[in-house]
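input
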Amino acid sequence: MRRISPISWVLIVLGVVFLVVGVIYLTTTPPNLPGFIPGHITAKPGHKYNQKYSKRGIAAFAVAVAAFVGVYYNDFRHRH
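output
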């Protein structure tokens, strides 16, 4: 049975977190973002917010992919 190194576990957790953040950015308008996520704004009365932070969502997905690629190269590529 193959063991996964501690650094790979950290990368897996970071990858999952950034996947969730990416989905939140792509599906939520700025006033509805959780307060701990950068980009949250206070809604002005009568103003419609239709835009979403698509660039931030794509960047979060890119970081998640990089973390998962790091896991692959760290634990699965170099072991036989």
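quick obs: Helices lie at 6-27, 54-76.
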